[in-house]
Request: fold
Amino acid sequence: MPSRIIKNNFRVDRLPHIWCPGCGHGILMRAIAVAIEESNLDKDKVCIVSGIGCSSRAAGYMDFNTLHTTHGRAIAFATGLKVANPDLKVIVISGDGDASAIGGNHLIHACRRNIDITTIIFNNNIYGMTGGQYSPTTPNKEKGTTAPYGNIDKAFDICQLASGAGATYVARSTVYHVNKMVEYVKKGIKHKGFSLVEGVSACPTYYGRKNKKGSAVDLIKEMKHKFIDISAKDKLSKDDVKNKIFMGEFKDVKEPEYIEEYFKIIDMFKKEMSI
Reply:
């Protein structure tokens, strides 16, 4: 018997999912479903848009209006959707490679425009679906199939990238801190403007195995000890934060939203043309 969350929000006939054993994406997908359920949204006015990659399988399992688009273009499709139908609550689910490499330009311009879309990035630090190539979030010196001697690139911090580009709500949680993930997705959905929530996931099949990080349980235990809340930053010493990663809410501000500004221009044009 499926739980209420599964019954209300998933295409049960598509389950079980095809993610690898130990993958954290199922935890993040469920967190989004819980957040939507608890936000009391009209299902007919929710559209979930995904690109390509492990994360983007989620759109096929979730029982809403869904679009499974091309690689890196989920935010571009979502932007068109939102402009055409501003009443929709548009939620993008994308991976770290899909959003910050192939779709990186779409991401930064959606942030800059502050369009009312919630983007949730499943960050497993690697391209899992296509064989474990290193991605823009693979930590420096760590390995992938295209970096057998270690990645020499500096990794993106997706939350800093989004904040700097102009997103007005930015938060990060992990598959270990799942209650926080639900809380941040709910806030992102409620927020007027471009909201981004990074969900740090676990990929034991490629990222974990390539970097000898142990089992899926070991990867999630590492999150428990490695991530600390940004709200505690000023209370901690340099030793306390050494080799740690901050999570929590990085930005929550109000700024003009793109669609509202766009329709002001339309109204000005109509007035000028006396339409």
Summary: The longest strand covers residues 245-252. The chain has twelve helices and ten strands.
